[in-house]
Amino acid sequence: MPKPYPPEFRRRALDLLDSGRSVRDVATSLGIAESCLHRWKSRDLLDRGLKTPTPEQVESAALTAAKARIAELETEVKILRKAAAAVEQVVPPKARFALVAELAAEGVPVKQACLSLGVSRAGFYEARSRPPSSRTIRQAWLSDRIAAVHEASRQTYGAPRIRAELVLGHGVIVSRKTVAALMRRAGLAGLPLRRKAKRVPPARTVTDLVKRDFRRDGPNQLWVTDITEHPTREGKLYCCVVLDVFSRRVVGWAIDSRQRADLATSALGMAIDSRGIAGQVPGGIIHGDHGTQFTSWTFTERARRAGLLPSLGSVGDPYDNAVAEAFWGRMQTELLDRRRWRTRVELANAIFEYIEGFYNRRRRHSALEWMSPIQFETIDRPSGLISSPTCP
């Protein structure tokens, strides 16, 4: 069977005819039959609406289109049969009954849907009339509770923290795998911590009183501080926090449009005033990096007057201040990177609400036995040296 001429060849041959040359001349020049050129010319006139098709041509075109559609449907049926066979191997009958119900709601006959999915009509009608099991009812109830906890966490909690909230906060006994499965079914997911590889420079001689040992058995023994920045349409906004490593609580913070020494000093002052630690914890440490804000005279003098020992990690090494870096990573994921901020005031209000309304009071921490920082501090301990801040 001879191969059909490509569309470009036919188009060029018709262009030669449109230029005024005769059919015989063009056919002889191209080595094709004159009848072939006549058919191409007639088809082109029909396609452009310059010629009215005869009834025979209309019937022929409809028949050709019908044959093409039949061939297409036969191919789709073959694909669907293969897909149905695969579904029967991996999808249990109960789930296939749900698919039959969806197809029936869309107007597909139940008999045909059951036949295609490999289930019986009697089984489908029996399953539809059967009352839900206790397991199904419990899973539906758990799904609602999980969705509520996920929403209350600002859509940041994953399966471990949601399970901790259910068990510790609501007294619901449930496994982490069950929570994870129900979250997948509901399309819920926590926000992952975006970790970036950082180069660790060679060690240098610095005044480091911590040496990467952040374990403490009581509050106000070790504070860490650091500054981050985030852009808005008005410009950058800077935030400095002071965290107590014992409970991971943000005990002091300050927000400003400029990164100066008074930013760090204000955050330290808030921490000292809110905890009331001046002279109460001998050997308390305030640990930061070598930024000029933390090596300035105003910052170090404010720390010494409160009885705190200033400590500095090595230059450019995030692991020497890992607790503060981890806090920034989590806030970056859960708040800062989730939207674009228009003004500095808008971002400052959001940071304030995140720290005081969510992180300190409600966010469950894996290092604190899945408790929030304030909850972890308020449980009974022999060393309760925390002084709760009072309202003015």
Examine the coordinates and then state which fold CATH places here, giving the name of the CATH topology of the largest domain. Answer: Nucleotidyltransferase, domain 5
- In the CATH classification, which architecture of the largest domain applies? 2-Layer Sandwich
Number of domains: 4
What's the total number of strands?
5
Largest sheet: 5 strands, mixed
With strands numbered from the N-terminus, the spatial order across the biggest sheet is 3-2-1-4-5
Q: Class by helix and strand content?
A: alpha/beta
CATH first level of the largest domain: Alpha Beta
Count of discrete alpha- or pi-helical segments spanning 4 or more residues: 16
Helix amount: 40-55%
- The N- and C-terminal alpha carbons lie at a distance of 97 Å
Low-confidence stretches: 200-206, 382-392
Give the SSE string.
HHHHHHHHHHEEEHEHHEHHH
Portion in strands: 5-15%
| Average pLDDT over all residues | 81
CATH superfamily of the largest domain: Ribonuclease H-like superfamily/Ribonuclease H
- Write down the overall geometry: elongated
Key traits:
disordered C terminus; elongated; five-stranded mixed beta sheet; alpha/beta; 4 domains; 9% strand; 392 residues
Write the layout of secondary structure elements.
Blueprint: H1 7-18, H2 23-30, H3 34-47, H4 55-90, H5 93-105, H6 110-117, H7 121-129, H8 134-152, H9 159-170, H10 176-186, E1 222-232, E2 235-244, E3 249-256, H11 261-275, E4 285-288, H12 292-295, H13 297-305, E5 309-312, H14 322-334, H15 344-359, H16 373-378
Parallel strand pairs: 1-4, 4-5
Antiparallel strand pairs: 1-2, 2-3
Helix pairs in contact: 5-6, 5-7, 8-9, 8-10, 9-10, 11-13
